[in-house]
Amino acid sequence: MTFDPTALRHHFPALAGPDAAAHFDGPGGTQTPTVVASAIADALVRPVANRGAVTLAERNADTLVVEARRAMGDLLATDPGGVIFGRSMTQLTMDMARTLSRDWQPGDEVIVTRLDHDANIRPWVTAAERVGAVVRWAAVDPATSELPTTAVTDLITDRTKLVAVTAASNLIGTMPDVAAITAAARAAGALSYVDAVHYTAHAAVDRAGLGADFLACSPYKFCGPHVGALAADPALLETLRPDKLVPSTDTVPERFELGTLPYELLAGTTAAVDFLAGMLGTDDDPGDAVASRRAFLSGAVDLEGDSGSNGSRRERLVAAMEAMADHELELRAHIEDALLELGATVFSRAARRTPTLLFELPGIASSEVYAGLAAHGVNAPAGNFYALECSRTLGLGDVGAVRVGLAPYSDASDVDRLVTALKAVVHAARVGA
Fold first, then answer.
1. pLDDT at 249
2. Among 132, 141, 191, 371, which has the highest number of CB atoms less than 10 A from its own CB?
């Protein structure tokens, strides 16, 4: 099936109306489809209580959690029993860093990269400093925007406890060879922690294929609500003892989830995964997700296995994400051509990368470009976007540059608006000079 962003756009109220902006701020968080908002609202108004099996309210809550784990299991190709939910990827990573570092000793080593978002750097640096472990830094090549595999693997020793690496840079889109890096870590007896927040929004994720012991992502980057998810093998999680309340369950993965889960956000997460699975316009249309959940909660249908005439949810997700990636690649090429014609310096140069472009226009401060684009109804912010080490490596300091990122609903008309607005910003700067 052909990927059709026009059909998808009808599901996003934020994209409708004469005053709607062209959104290129997807790397910071996508817009929300109606089906996700409806799933959240539906969960809030249905009978719900702490999870259990006695009352309808308890069963509803349990179903929402189980279904969200299954959805994320399909999205990430991982065992649902190893899916942990939390407030954000940052919170989950901080918690896991505290847990894992309990077994570290002075002189042990942790590897982080200068490509990563600070959420996959600072938790490990802080944990290492607390126990006297050594932090080793893998460098990005500023000329190519690449993180060479050897930049990481050459740092691994028999004292390495953990390698933290991103699957895709939220700043410049670079997608390093994660599988090669995690394989080298495993061979040395080290664990790997993969930040897949940006990657999950643009690729079909396979946790085992990536070799990630831990893989973290954020549903709000792929049309879902603001919540974080962390996936690992349940057997690995069984070996870890996080801080927890005495009466709270010791069962995996619940032992890692502090307090009552946000059931409504988990409902939205499931709906977001179903939305992605239906992006090719099959008979499993994105708009059917809430109706299916309601039928399941009422006992009218059994979604176990979640397969249909178009294959399992995992199969539909892979097909949809691959088709979306082809579409985004085409749009990215048009934007790159326009930026080069305007004389922009483009910092996103890696051979394998997401449809995310970081750039500067000659003689114009990035903050002015950001404001100028916004004045023309185009949302493309400027900054370092918490990828502070990468921004500094590229010579951009803490200020960063303008970032343009695509999302499933991005289309050719958005690109035309962006290019027109960029030309207007350049023209205004020249006239003003």
1. 96
2. 191
What's phi and psi for 15, nearest 5 deg?
-95, 0
Contact 11, 35 (CB under 8 A): yes
SS3 of residue 312 by DSSP: strand
Q: Mean pLDDT for the chain?
A: 94
Q: Which residue is it, tokens 């927040």?
A: 197
Determine the 3-state secondary structure of 231 from DSSP. strand
Q: In terms of Cα–Cα distance, which of 324, 319, 353, 315 is closest to 336?
A: 353
In order of 2, 76, 275, 288, 375, the CA distances from 315 in angstroms are 16, 12, 14, 18, 42
Spatial contact of 192 and 221, defined as CB atoms under 8 Å apart:
no
- Rounded-to-integer distance, Cα 332 and Cα 325, Å: 10
Which residue is it, tokens 């185009």? Answer: 378
What is the rounded CA–CA span in Å between residue 266 and residue 288? 17
The Cα-based distances of 69 to 24, 228, 230, 235, 295 in angstroms read 29, 12, 10, 16, 18
